[in-house]
Predict the structure of Major facilitator superfamily (MFS) profile domain-containing protein.
Amino acid sequence: MQNSSDKMATKDVIAIVAAALMAFLGVLIETAMNVTFPTLTKQFNVPLATVQWVTTGYLLMVSIIIVCSAYIKGRFKERNIFITGVIFSIVGDLICALAPQFTILLLGRLIQAVGTGIVLPLLFNIILERAPMAKRGIFMGIGGLVVSLAPALGPTFGGIVVFFLSWRDIFWITLPLMILGLLLSFSIDQKTPLRKEKFDWLRLIFLAIVFVSLTLAFNSVSALGWLNWQLALGLVITVIALWIFVVISNHSSRVLIDIKIFKNRVFDFALLAYIFIQVANIGINFVLPNYAQIADHDTSLTAGLILLPGSLISGLLNPVWGRMYDSLGAKKPIVTGNTVFFVAIVLFAAISMNMSPMMILGAYLLFAIGMTMSFANTMTYALTAVGRESEADANAWFNTLQQFGGSIGTAIASSFLASGSGHGAAAVMQSGTQHVFIFMGVLILINFISYHYTFKPTK
């Protein structure tokens, strides 16, 4: 039930804080591990293309779980959902901290991903149900701050911890905060009635096949190049599984996630732009810490700290972009943000063959400001456009494809890095990094077309 006044109960504020904390931790650890990759390759004696599954597999699992979020929210009490997610996160966190080998570490990451997949969409549902309409932009901006700032802060956090302590301490440090989230969860009360509906396992299976096959297809490029049979086969399987998913969706009475929402043009183009932003954001946040360590021979501490100024400044400005949305409308902050974002990526592409830490710091500041300005506001505009009755499904699609976009972004970036040319690891990293920036720049350029149709008046 939407609040009619501009005031919020203390219990509702605590509920948002609890959800924001757990979502922040889930996304923070997601990218904090990026800085540890050179260390993990040596400790577990596995190549970078294998180690990156710590992030890719995590994002993939989060995507699959979030698909179920609309059904889970309608079927179970929000407090019980949240507590379940926190328990998965804590168990996975402990397994990762104690992992004796890489396969156990990966298992812990997947269990942890289940918790994040449960909690992350709940954050936006809690905000939408509790925030007054007049302040929706600000509160959604705070939610966007969580999912956009955390990936950027992750490498900084990870770099500091790895330099002074151990990569295992990433999990030990976040554990008390997860326990705090569990304690705060008791402030969550139920706002909407529950529904007893049948879950559509068949559709979930085919959508999971779509996600897994597409991720594996792009991941094959790192070893076999862009012209290989595994990529072609993966794309074919993806198309077939997606077609079957749509056919079943049009005839199934069971509940998973609504595809009729894609009849809304505003939602479609806003979602596409949102996915491209996430692919570029996560992909580049994967590349930069590894570039600093491999191409510039910097420490993990430096690799993390060079992203900190951009992360903090853009994060602090995120509520400002929300207020711009409330006062000026969606188009100005979104299109302006995409323009700044694109300029930053072009700048990165131009200097990528010889980037010093200070050059990365400056370009990343511009990059982070542009990304955060357009990211959360794009989602807010789309959720408002679909109407109250479709918000839960729209939210599920945004959160699902946001995480899947991150998985694809990591896989594509890893593939480009591995396919770079030159003599020595540094030269290969520089060449591959430039290819990453060119590819991501094309995606953000396409966003201008998407936003044109997003804001084009409808009859």
Summary: The chain has one domain: 10-190+201-454.
